[in-house]
Amino acid sequence: MTSITAYEPGASQLLMGNEAIARGALEAGLGFASAYPGNPSSEIIGSLAEVAREMDIHVEWSVNEKVALEAAAASFAGVRAIVAMKQNGLNVASDFLMNLNLTGTSAGLVLVICDDPAGLSSTNEQDSRPVAKWAELPLLEPATFQEAKDMTKWAFELSEKIRNVCLIRSVTRVSHARGDVRLAELMPPGRSARFAPTMLGQFTPLLVTLKHNMLHQKVKQAREAFETSEFNWYTGPEKPELLIVTCGSGWYYSLEAVRVLGLEESVGILKLGTTWPLPEKLVQEHLARTEKVLVVEEVDPFLEGNLKELVGDVFSTLGPLTFYGKRSGHLPTVGELDPDRVMTAVSTILGRERAVDADYAKKSQELTQSMVQNRMVGFCAGCPHRATLWSVKNALKLDGRGGFVTGDIGCYTLGLGPSGFFQLKTVQSMGSGAGLACGFGNLGKLGFGQPVLAVCGDSTFFHATIPALINGVYNQANFTLLILDNSATAMTGFQPHAGTGASATGDPAPSVDMEGLCRSLGIRVEVADPFDLQETTEKILDFMRCDGGVRVLISRRKCALVRAKAEKAAFKVWVDSEKCRGESCGCARLCTRVFQCPGLVWDSEGQKAKIDEVICSGCGVCADICPASAIIREAA
Amino acid sequence: MKEKDPLNVIVTGVGGQGNVLVSQFMGRALVRAGYHVTIGETYGASQRGGAVMSHLRISRQAQYGPLIPSGQADVILGLEPVETLRVLAQYGNPDVTVITNSRPVYPLSVAIGAARYPTVDEIMGALEELTSSAWLINATEIAVELGAPILANIVMVGALVGAGLVPLGPEEVELEFQESLSADRLDLNLKAFRRGLAEARARQPATPSA
Questions:
Q1: What is the dihedral of CA A173, A373, A392, A536, to 10 degrees?
Q2: What is the DSSP string of A263-291?
Q3: What are the residue boundaries of the structural domains of chain B, listed by start?
């Protein structure tokens, strides 16, 4: 698709929120960008990587978020830098951030955090905004695509003005939505990068209390800038019956609610783009003109809490105020917002009915209910993870000592469910599969006798598994690490990583040798082909039985979606309906009921299995699971 | 055709059918034609067989939010019939127009024999009751004929434009293909688009009965 530099200044371009953020950085003269992929943030660095060569800037996929932020602090050398991460990534980076805030910066450094309300592509639901208060760093929240671009550009100026990191918090419905954005001029970065610390200890947090005091001063400066920011605005009557205070994706939902309910004359909206520190004078002016306030924001009542904190300080200047929002129960405290939820809140507070066609709603539910089944998410047709977990399942069963799998973050997290045969028993954060195994693997003297298999993907291995692996070796934990190497960061959009031999910009890069790295620890390391079910099962079994210490088995096959783009199918696969004995086989429909590849379906009319040729990827693995040898695999 | 403003279009299907691409092609052509466009997408599970939809909001006047309120879809473009019904149940209204691919992508529960997929007649019956007009297009069959089942989404874009349900002419969409697609993919995409266009132009919507 068209890049973020393809259009002329002045043109309107349809941009994803993340692309708009990236474009804003380029309009600010960006020189350096880094991130570890994580949705909904991945396209910020992804779209910058596409144009890195043409803009002659450095863009990288870093090994994890902490390193990404540390690398972006190259802004110390006078280069504007951006770093992007999802909410979980912020947690990884926070150790560095909580010192960097005291150190301060010189050239602009912008940290974009993309939260994922409802955890649509995450293992947790987290509001990252308290980090602004915690680290005392200014926080901006874009509400529109245009603002995502313009705000990012301005964030660099603010960062340089207060000489500290500026935070931008986006959410899925801004980052992963698209809208038309009017473009401004691109600005090439300066070419005189040089690190020249002028003061003793300028780039350390030492003299902590002095630095902490300086940090307070920077917050004050930011607040002053926020009081007159163009990213805060009000629409509505002079004295609204209800004042909605909102930020981020809440802006469009609030606007829609007021429009659909026809309340333009009685409800006002104060939209804040600068949410911490609060522009107190501005907010106070608006609070003084109403008696009812509804706060519309994603995830936690962060803005609501800050407004109330302000009211606590200045209540003598305000009239009686009632707050509505998440704490009052008018808006949900979990999951994401949408226009309907905001409409319900507004109509409940004001006692107005929302006109709905109840007959149609009832009829449509009745007519469709029995026809619309849930669509379970599962591994793709031809996914190597399904094959590996099939072998894991069989090996654990053959071993019979109650062994289990500690899971990790990636596509293979789906192994918690039916398409991975429920094999994963734990999932927490990046690298935690091996970390947990370090503990379980040292419970032997406490009576623990179950084999432990930790899994992680190739990208996760580099991100956070290596320290846990070294810990396991050093402390002589007893477990097998199974690396599911599909040669991509598949879950987030196939970004390259340290082991793929390609850089973020698509140039050749040194490939870190995963096997060599593991071997250097003096442990047993082998590679298996997951599509060879028998060999993989035997290897897993053998690794589990070789008790004592850590061993590593790498199950290696390219991601099915990557294969589909680059290679022809290896096999033509079909079901020989003479050989398939259907329900009378005794296998209890092992292929469709248990193996559950979407390319293999149960034909309820013919009462046999069949291949859906549109979906089948031609991996041929299912041929090995059919006890009647009815699934035929022919070289394509 | 008098344009509704905003025009709310939902593109729906199953992860892997190219839903996101469809909304992007149309969105870009609409921006070029001077419209404000917002596209909200359900993501995350999109490549792994989950239910996927894109909300397109098209306006001459202003930009709208990325999510359409319940009951306020004007047009539903379905790449998969049961997904079309799923969206209809939440976003439909008596004035909604539906244009959908006829070819099922079986949910796992159906593929493994644990649930039944509705018949074409059952689906059409529901569409007749719940829409002002509905079109059923054999998009996957057409795409298979062209040798690329994945292009069913582009056939459906052709049908949508051919049926006159969005304020875009064929040449505006084709221009977008020419800009966005590499030369080796362009020809087949144009063929798929034109087949869909012809399919919709050749007939009236299948419902409601006169």
A1: -90
A2: -TTTEEEEE-SEEES--HHHHHHHHTT-S
A3: 7-201
**Torsion from C-alpha of B92, B40, B48, B78, nearest 10 degrees:** 40
Query: Residue B110: which pLDDT band, with cuts at 50, 70 and 90?
Result: confident
Closest Cβ–Cβ partner in B44, B94, B105 for A121: B44
Q: Which residues, in sequence order, are CB contacts of A131 under 8 Å at separation 6+?
A: A90, A94, A97, A113, A137, A167
Residue the block writes with tokens 């905001």: A342
CATH 3.40.50.2300 fits B7-201, yes or no: no
pLDDT tens track for A438-478: 999 999 999 999 999 999 999 999 999 999 999 999 999 99
* pLDDT of A113 over the 80 cut: yes
Closest residue of chain B to A492, computed from CA coordinates = B44
The interface pTM score, or ipTM, of the predicted complex is 0.94
Q: A384-559 belongs to which homologous superfamily?
A: Thiamin diphosphate (ThDP)-binding fold, Pyr/PP domains (3.40.50.970)
Residue B42 has pLDDT above 90, yes or no: no
Asked whether the beta carbons of residue B38 and residue A178 sit closer than 8 angstroms, the reply is yes
Residues of B in contact with A589 (CB under 8 A): 112-113
Query: Looking at chain B from residue 81 to 120, which residues have their Cβ under 8 Å from any Cβ of chain A?
Result: 82, 85-86, 88-89, 92-94, 105-118
pTM confidence score: 0.96
pLDDT digits (tens, 9 = 90+) for A170-200: 999 999 999 999 999 999 999 999 998 876 5
* Cβ within 8 Å, pair B69-A368: no
**3-class secondary-structure state, position A8:** coil
